[in-house]
Amino acid sequence: MKDALKKCNNKQIMSPSSETHARIVENLATAVLLFDKDLHLISINNAGEGLLSVSSKRVSGMTPKQIWPNSSFFYDAIQRSLFSGGTCIDRGVDLYLNNAQKIKVDCMITPVIVNEVAEEILVELVNADAFVRVMQETNQQTVQEAAKESVQGMAHEIRNPLGGIRGAAQLLERELDNKELLEYTQIIINEADRLRNFIDRMLTTSTQPAKADMNIHEVLEYVVSVVRAENSRPLNFKKDYDPSIPDINADREQIIQAVLNLIRNAVQAIDEDGTITLKTRIQRQVTIQHRLNRHIIELDIIDDGPGVPPEIESGAFYPLVTGRAEGTGLGLSIAQQLIQSHGGLINYERKGSNTYFSILLPMEQSDE
Ligand SMILES: Nc1ncnc2c1ncn2[C@@H]1O[C@H](COP(=O)(O)OP(=O)(O)OP(=O)(O)O)[C@@H](O)[C@H]1O
Ligand SMILES: [Mg+2]
Question: How far from chain centre, in Å, is Cα 327?
Fold first, then answer.
């Protein structure tokens, strides 16, 4: 026990055991890989397996060239660090994984020197995409929270007198002898109803999700049937589902609402022979709302329309921002709030001639 105690700045601290070290490495959010001096992999932690989509069992003992036959990055970077004898840092490196996915990483490679010889090579990797995403997301969330509060406050103020206006118009209608004037009271009643529906849409997102097991593909099939029913023109949907995605614990009604808003937008954006692609995948190690998720579902709603008009692109997720003459500008902001209340996020991206609205939804939902 005495040996296990070290003096440090006059404080006595316990020297961590090797189990503690192992536990720390396994729970690090940073991917850590250790190669021996002949470049055979000795160990990879959980974050490494997740980030690089490999299993420790399959790859241990393999060299970087065997693990990633399509990418010479690790081999070259390790050679560089061995040559310099110090830590080599590469930022924003595009890494092509064996499952054809591309990720951006920040990478640090350090030779572990024992008796002036590099005995092992330590590789640390951080998902750079995740950090960019966290920064953008934090800015977006702050502004959106403020916008949501002021819009909802205003909505409550408008909602209350509406009941009075509608009731008075009904009373007036009963008293009217001149039937021609009925047209005007009907306009008051109809417009009050329209305004009330609009206000109700603004206020719906304040309800807490009622979660139960649900299947994302069943939701997609349902939403596609609703959208087909409300459009008289034929719609071309392409489905690219990952059938291995398990059920998740989420509020089905709210997820339907969010997906419906995005698919309706896509329908409005495409022309007669346009296509909407619905793609589902599992992604690993993604940080959303400051929380690192081991697994998330990514649902991409992809259309080949012109994309969000540049003049509203930065504010498209805020309430009342619209690029359509008949739009109310609520669809995206409601969808974003519903997905965020599930710990997720919606991203917009234009890739080539395609518009991507991607719903990122954690698979392990927290209960808060
Ligand atoms: N898939 C898309 N392609 C092109 N532009 C889009 C797409 N999705 C949204 N937009 C643009 O973003 C704007 C905001 O969308 P949002 O759904 O919030 O409101 P809206 O569609 O105008 O009205 P509504 O409240 O009826 O949904 C749209 O008006 C449109 O200009
Ligand atoms: Mg819309």
Answer: 25
